[in-house]
Each structure stands twice: as structure tokens, then as C-alpha cells.
Write a structure and sequence with these properties.
Chain lengths: 160, 528
């Protein structure tokens, strides 16, 4: 395990842990709170989490790795989730995935070298009447093509 | 002052509704036109979003789709006086929303307020018949509420179609110091968005439904297990819940009745299998979402080992109208054992995608062509997948099937959560079959072997079938047999629907579209 966590982040995490002690089923909201705040769940905090939540470190690790949403490494400043589910496939999302990967030079779960953009697969954004759909950070975009992708990505990153 | 409505539903936002709303407000300010901008839910005509409505003495008039570039022109045409001849002459003028073909034949019961009201206005909710059901329920015993739900014929709208009243009755009869109401809002099926619409466009109806469920079975705590992919739903639900608390519609003393019900939203974390109720409960308890053995049923030993009602969003959101207008009113809609209405979602390659709520009995063909307007690409619709990624593919010859649980079951298909995904004739059904296995590989909780390993073997067999390798007629036939055997093992040997229904899309694709399962590289097929 690395120890790259800053003192500020550690303090934030400790506050989240303290706030979730005794909350029924509190591990899920705790992990959300940590990831929302610092962007990922550092493995080095597993011992503190396990102690506070009365779990083994293995159980905490098992929990984090079970869920697609949780990640143990930082991602780029912006996250582009591309829907891979059937409705979007029916509207050509497979080609879109390929084009996005080519355009930004990254595969799924990878981040552009400048740290600006991470792309992730997602299975349904609930925008199926306007497929294909993507979500850039917390904003869903419908009926997208490469033109739309380039436009929305360029609004928040240096990628033209 | 004239009311102008611009939806805040996610799909409307995904097509620029926020920008449209801002542009309308800015232009009104600039011109000194006195408007009240209301951010309503969506009517569900998603191909027309952003759909802007203007209030008139005749009803609301729709203009759509309104992009920012259209705003100046709309003001030039005096669109805020929507009955004026100039406004009616505008290219985006559609007439009264209620009179649109798409709307006027619908039977909106669960979705009665959706697109009409401001989702986070409790006053608006109450002015449109909100909380009438709860007030009736407060004067009834738990047994009487359960009886009403049973008599309505309501069945679980999440997909399993289990009678809601019977489930509630089990929880009612289970003695315990604590019981729970859990709303399954982990709407992960591709082609579905009705739960999301309820949560974003009419959140109080879900809160009311869960409160009634709590009164019915004696539960004082509710959780909404919401998928993490719905950030807008989260914000809107939390806003509505805090307003409900402030107005004593939630809390320790609901409307002075002395009865308590508390409600909290819990975010899921991107695991499809957590839409399965026991996996969901594990996840709510802060564990890996591993599916539990049943029995015990969640109704007896559910969340934290206590009796728990687990219902889908639509099931719970349908309860208020049943308690308001009576069980018979609801049961009068529908066909056979499928009573009431189903919010149907048209998605995929469809010209007019959106939300259609109708009584059970409408056919797929009516939905795809009368409402959907055919494919978006203009090519023939070759197949539809109904009921999400675990639902069967249906060919054109089955499009006259009525939307009814039993009619679908007869075809070895499922209605599920009412999502219909259309594919045109460019679809390769062997790829869709392979994808079904791939999805199962990614999403399997890993507890049982047929699902965990079977899905991986399934993708391998599909690759063998279509790759052009191993393609003598004999080996092709053998591979198809392996595919069928594997599917049989998954169906009969899996603990839950994840592994148990993944073969539905696979085998239906194989049965209805065998030509797509021929080896892709025919040159390599030998006739030995």
C-alpha cells in the first residue's frame, strides 16, 4: 500500500469515518462520502475503516472491489461514462465507444496523460429514449455523436 | 404573469433544457415580459424535449423541441400569449399538450401528475390530489390498507409481478419490534426509465406510497435504494423528503396521527445484481451484494433480519391512487390477471421514444408504431427486447402480443419493468446473445457457479459459433447444442434471475434469428 495521502485528505476521511460509526449499514454511505470528497477510496485507510465499522480489512477490501462505482485510485479531473447497454447499442454506441477511445487515446478505466479525462463504461443511464447517452461528470447527454462529445469535452478540458 | 414550463427531468436536461430555460428567462427579462418559469417534470414525449409549455385559459400549449436558438423567434411570435394567432403560426407550436395524439389516449394513473407539476412543490402536489391516499389510509387499519392493495390486483412492477398485497400481508403478520419498507430504485435495466421519472418528476408520490406501506405493515423506517447513476434523482428526492418532514408528512407524528414513518435515500454503487431484492438488502446492510438463499423470505427476515417489504418504485408510487380512488377503480383497468396500468418505456432504435402509461392489453405493435412511430433509422424493426437485459428478444411475428404478464410468459418472454428496446434490421442477434453473456460475466455476484462460470463459457461458445474457426457443420451443430445445454444449466441451477434469466435473450435470439448464428466466415465451413 502506498502512503501518498495528504494530511488534509486524511483529516477529511477521518471525519467521514467518525460520522458513520453506528449508522446502520453505514459502510456504503461512508465509502460514498469518501469517494465524493477526495475522488477515490485509498486502500491505506482500510485499517481505520475496518476498526470503526467492526469489520476485517479483508471485508472492507471485498466490499470496495465488489462495486463498480468504487475505485481505489484517483481518476482524471473529469469523468466521461459511456453507456454500453442494449438501447444505446441499438443506436450505434459500439462505434461511438471506439471513436471516443481513438480520439482521446485512452481505453476504459484509463486517464488522458494530462490528467483531464477518464473514460468509464456504464450500463444504462436511464436515458434510453434518447440513445446513445453518455454522462460527463454529473450531466447526462442524449442522442450524442462525436460532434457532441467533442463539444462537451472541450467545454471542461483542454481537449479540442 | 404567464406560467412557462420547462422540464427538469434528466432526459430533458440531456437535450439542453437548462440552457433553454435560462435563455427564456433572459429573453423575458430583456423584453420586460412578465413570466413565471416553472421547472416541471417531463410529459415523457422524449423525442420532443425540451418541450416548453405555456399556460392558457384553454390549458397548456406545447412548443417543441425548443433549443436556445429558437427562443428569440418564440418571443417574436409572442408565444407567451399562446392562443394568439402569431403564436399558433410558429413552427414549433404543437397545440394543447393534452390533445396531442401521444397524450390523449394514455391512461395515466401512476403518472397522473408527471410533467404537470413542479416536482419539489408540496403545494403543487397537494393541489393535484397528492396525499389524498395517505389521509384515507390514516383512517384505516393495517389490515384494511393491505386488503385494498390486494383487491386492486397490483403486482410487483419491478419485473417479478408478485402480488403486492400478498407480500404486504406477510410482513403485516410477522411480529417484530422493527419492520422496514425498502424501495428498490436500482433501475438498471436498459430501456427503462419510469422509476427515474417518478423520482425526478413526482417524488412525493413515492414518499406517500412508502408512508402508506409503512402504515399498512407497521414499519417505521423506509429506505430508498437508489442507483448511483441517477444524481438528479438523488438531489430531488432529498429535497422532497426534507419538505415532507417539514410539513409532518414524514416523522414521528404524521399529520397528527401519532404514527411514525422515517425515510432515507441510500445510494447504490453500480452493481446491477443489487436490483435483486436479497442482494439489495445485503448492500443496504453495508456488505457485498451477494444474493441470499430464500427462504427465509425478506418479508419474514429481510433488512437486518427484520420483516421487510421490498417493492419497486412504480409499485409503491401506484399505492396512493389505489388508496385515493379505491381498489376497484384501479382493478377496472387491465386484462386477465394483469390489473391496472403499466408505465411502458419505448427506447432504443425508435422514432418517438418516451413514456406511455396504458392499461394492460395494448399490443407491442401499437406501442412500436402508433406511439413509437417505427424505428429512428427508418429501417424495419427487426427485433425488440422487452424487460431489460434478462428479457427475451421478440421477432416481428410476435408484435401482436398484448402487454400482459401471462401472454408474455406463454412466449417464454417477460414483461419485466416494461422497457421495450427496438432494433432495426442492421442488428446482429448473435452479437446481442454474446453481449447477454458478457453482461452476466460483468455483473454476476459470483455466488453460484452456473452464473459466474456459465456466463464466461457462454461468451466462449458464442465466439466459437461465430468466429469462423471450428466450423464444420458437425462442430457448429455441437456448439449450438453446448449453448443450449449451458443455458439449461444456468436456468435451472442459478440462485437468482441474473444467471437464471441470462439465457432468455440468448435462446430467444437463437430460436427466432438462427440465420444470425451461422458462422460469419462461410468460406471456412466445410461439408464433411
Amino acid at each position: 500500500m502506498s502512503t501518498t495521502l495528504s494530511a488534509t485528505d486524511l483529516t477529511k476521511i477521518e471525519a467521514h469515518i467518525a460520522a458513520h460509526i453506528g449508522v446502520p449499514g453505514g459502510l456504503t454511505p461512508l465509502m460514498h462520502a469518501i469517494q465524493d470528497d477526495i475522488g477515490y477510496i485509498p486502500e491505506e485507510i482500510y485499517p481505520q475503516v475496518s476498526k470503526a465499522m467492526a469489520l476485517s480489512v479483508a471485508e472492507v477490501h471485498g466490499f470496495v472491489t465488489f462495486y463498480h462505482h468504487f475505485r481505489t485510485h484517483p481518476v482524471g479531473k473529469h469523468v466521461l461514462q459511456i453507456c454500453r447497454a442494449e438501447s444505446c447499442q441499438a443506436m450505434g454506441s459500439e462505434q461511438l465507444e471506439t471513436d471516443i477511445k481513438t480520439k482521446y487515446g485512452v481505453d476504459y478505466h484509463e486517464t488522458t496523460k494530462d490528467g483531464e479525462l477518464t473514460i468509464l463504461p456504464v450500463y444504462c443511464l436511464g436515458n434510453c429514449a434518447c440513445s446513445p447517452a453518455v454522462m460527463l461528470d454529473d450531466d447526462v447527454h442524449g442522442r450524442v455523436d462525436m460532434g457532441v462529445i467533442e463539444e462537451i469535452v472541450s467545454e471542461v478540458t483542454n481537449h479540442g | 404573469m404567464v406560467k412557462v414550463f420547462v422540464p427538469r427531468d434528466s432526459t430533458a436536461l440531456s437535450l439542453g433544457a437548462d440552457r433553454t430555460a435560462k435563455a427564456i428567462q433572459a429573453e423575458a427579462d430583456k423584453r420586460g415580459v412578465d413570466i413565471e418559469l416553472v421547472r416541471n417534470g417531463s410529459r415523457g414525449l422524449f423525442w420532443l424535449e425540451p418541450l416548453v409549455e405555456v399556460e392558457t385559459t384553454e390549458g397548456r400549449v406545447a412548443f417543441a423541441p425548443v433549443k436556445t436558438k429558437d427562443v428569440t423567434g418564440l418571443f417574436d411570435a409572442n408565444f407567451t400569449d399562446a392562443l394568439s394567432s402569431e403564436a399558433q403560426a410558429h413552427a414549433l407550436h404543437l397545440g394543447l399538450t393534452e390533445d396531442l395524439d401521444w397524450m390523449k389516449k394514455q391512461q395515466r394513473l401512476t403518472f397522473a401528475r408527471i410533467g404537470v407539476t413542479d416536482p419539489v412543490s408540496l403545494d403543487d402536489y397537494i393541489a393535484h390530489d397528492g396525499y389524498k391516499g395517505l389521509h384515507n389510509a390514516l383512517n384505516l387499519s393495517g389490515e384494511e390498507i393491505v386488503q385494498a392493495v390486494t383487491d386492486s390486483g397490483l403486482r410487483g412492477r419491478g419485473g417479478a409481478a408478485f402480488p403486492t398485497g400478498i407480500k404486504w400481508n406477510t410482513v403485516l403478520g410477522a411480529p417484530a419490534d422493527q419492520k422496514y419498507i425498502v424501495c428498490n430504485a436500482d433501475e438498471g435495466d436498459s430501456g427503462t426509465f419510469s422509476d427515474r421519472m417518478v423520482m425526478e418528476d413526482d417524488p412525493f408520490v413515492l414518499i406517500e406510497g412508502m408512508t402508506i406501506a409503512g402504515l399498512a405493515v407497521g414499519a417505521t423506517q423506509g429506505y430508498i435504494y437508489l442507483r448511483s447513476e441517477y444524481p438528479h434523482s438523488l438531489a430531488i428526492l432529498n429535497e422532497a423528503i426534507s419538505k415532507a418532514y417539514a410539513a409532518d408528512y414524514l416523522g414521528d407524528d404524521i399529520q397528527g396521527s401519532g404514527k411514525a414513518f422515517h425515510l432515507e435515500v441510500r445510494r447504490a454503487a453500480g452493481a446491477y445484481v443489487c436490483g435483486e431484492e436479497t442482494s439489495l438488502l445485503e448492500s443496504l446492510e453495508g456488505k457485498r451484494g451477494l444474493v441470499r438463499f430464500k427462504p427465509p423470505l425478506p418479508a419474514i427476515e429481510g433488512l437486518f433480519g427484520k420483516p421487510t417489504v421490498v417493492n419497486n418504485v412504480i409499485s409503491l408510487a401506484t399505492v396512493p391512487i389505489i388508496l385515493d380512488k379505491g381498489a376497484q377503480y384501479y382493478a377496472d383497468y387491465g386484462m386477465g390477471r394483469s390489473r391496472g396500468t403499466l408505465p411502458i418505456q419505448l427506447a432504443g432504435n425508435i422514432k418517438q421514444g418516451g413514456l406511455v402509461e396504458l392499461a394492460f392489453g395494448v399490443t407491442l405493435r401499437e406501442l412500436l408504431y402508433d406511439y413509437g412511430g417505427g424505428s429512428a433509422s427508418g429501417r424495419p424493426i427487426r427485433a425488440v427486447q422487452v424487460g431489460g437485459p434478462l428479457g427475451a428478444y421478440l421477432p416481428e411475428s410476435q408484435f401482436d402480443t398484448p402487454v400482459d404478464y401471462e401472454s408474455f410468459q406463454k412466449l417464454w418472454a417477460v414483461l419485466g419493468h416494461g422497457g421495450i428496446v427496438a432494433f432495426d434490421d442492421t442488428v446482429d442477434m448473435s452479437k446481442m446473445a454474446r453481449y447477454a453473456f458478457e453482461f452476466c460475466t460483468i455483473e454476476s455476484c459470483g455466488k453460484c457457479t452456473p452464473c459466474r462460470i456459465g456466463s464466461v463459457r457462454g461468451t466462449e461458445v458464442m465466439d466459437k459459433i461465430t468466429s469462423g474457426e471450428d466450423n464444420t457443420k458437425e462442430s457448429h451443430a455441437k456448439n449450438i447444442q453446448v449453448l443450449r445445454d449451458l443455458s439449461d444449466t444456468m436456468i435451472n441451477g442459478s440462485l437468482c434471475a441474473m444467471g437464471g434469466m441470462t439465457p432468455f435473450p440468448v435462446i430467444s435470439a437463437l430460436n427466432h434469428f438462427p440465420e444470425d448464428f451461422e458462422p460469419k466466415n462461410k468460406a471456412k465451413v466445410t461439408s464433411e
